[in-house]
């Protein structure tokens, strides 16, 4: 379905949208990797109680990766 977009709505070009999508994928992968790394390091030290922030970072990374996958579908 093609809806007309009003002139006052800024719509980036396809190249810019693709760049934003790739950057969000890279950031998501980095967040998941860093979160898992620090989670693993916390388990070694025995500080498992303060892992909530790490799980939030991992969750945000997964959401960014899922967002990229959904954008590829459409």
What is the fold's blueprint, element by element?
Blueprint: H1 14-45, H2 52-73
Helix pairs in contact: 1-2
Note the main attributes of this structure.
mainly alpha, elongated
Largest sheet: none
> What's the total number of strands?
0
The backbone outline, from C-alpha atoms, is elongated
Tell me the helix content. Answer: over 70%
Give a description of the structure:
By secondary structure, this protein is an all-alpha fold. The chain has one domain. Helix content is 73%, strand content 0%. The chain has two helices and no strands. Helix 1 packs antiparallel against helix 2. It is elongated and about 55 Å long. The termini are close together.
Give a nutshell description of this structure:
The protein has two helices and no strands. It is mainly α.
